């Protein structure tokens, strides 16, 4: 278990290191522990600040932002270990930006639909 914790902490120690290589096992442990920590933080935040409170969401989104900032250099080093350029990470960023952009500009249906009532009803 201490190896897994060290692999996770290594992600934070090398948060600005985009050179070198990382092992698959270290990267897997980093992702696993990062996911566990996210759920623990989300659970604690929901209990402290209310189930659907704005503060709980801000805490969760803040941790997601920190996770992305630590995962990016870890991914680059993992790609280096596979003999690939770290620039491949930009492909995922472009995909995510396109997905979020599409969700922001999609026209909503007016009135109720198969997924529930119109959230704008009564406004």
Report on the architecture of this protein:
The chain is mostly helical and about 120 residues long. It contains four helices and no strands. It has one domain. Helix 1 crosses helix 2. The model has no long low-confidence stretch (mean pLDDT about 85).
The residue-averaged pLDDT reads: 87
**The number of domains:** 1
Q: From the helix content, strand content and strand pairing, which structural class follows?
A: mainly alpha
**Strand runs, count:** 0
Overall outline:
flat
Radius of gyration: 19 Å
- N-to-C span: 52 Å
What are the low-pLDDT stretches, counting only 5+ consecutive residues below 50?
none
Strand content: under 5%
Helix content: 55-70%
* Helical segment count: 4
Report the order of strands and helices: HHHH
Largest sheet: none
Protein name: DUF805 domain-containing protein
Organism: Budvicia aquatica
InterPro entries: DUF805
Keywords: Membrane, Transmembrane, Transmembrane helix
What's the short story on this structure?
It holds the Pfam family DUF805. The chain has 123 residues and is mostly helical. The chain has helices spanning 2-13, 24-49, 54-81, 89-105.
Topology:
Layout lengths: L1 H12 L10 H26 L4 H28 L7 H17 L18
Helix pairs in contact: 1-2, 2-3
Q: Main traits of this protein?
A:
123 residues, mainly alpha
């Amino acid at each position: 278990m201490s190896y897994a914790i060290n692999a996770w902490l290594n992600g934070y120690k090398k948060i600005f290191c985009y050179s070198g290589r990382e092992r698959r096992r270290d990267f897997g442990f980093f992702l696993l522990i990062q996911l566990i920590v996210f759920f623990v933080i989300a659970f604690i935040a929901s209990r402290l600040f209310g189930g659907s409170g704005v503060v709980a969401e801000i805490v969760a989104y803040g941790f997601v932002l920190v996770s992305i900032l630590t995962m990016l250099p870890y991914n680059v080093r993992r790609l280096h270990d596979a003999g690939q350029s770290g620039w491949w990470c930009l492909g995922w960023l472009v995909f995510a930006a396109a997905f979020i952009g599409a969700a922001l500009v999609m026209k909503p249906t007016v009135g109720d639909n198969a997924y529930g009532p119109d959230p704008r009803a009564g406004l």
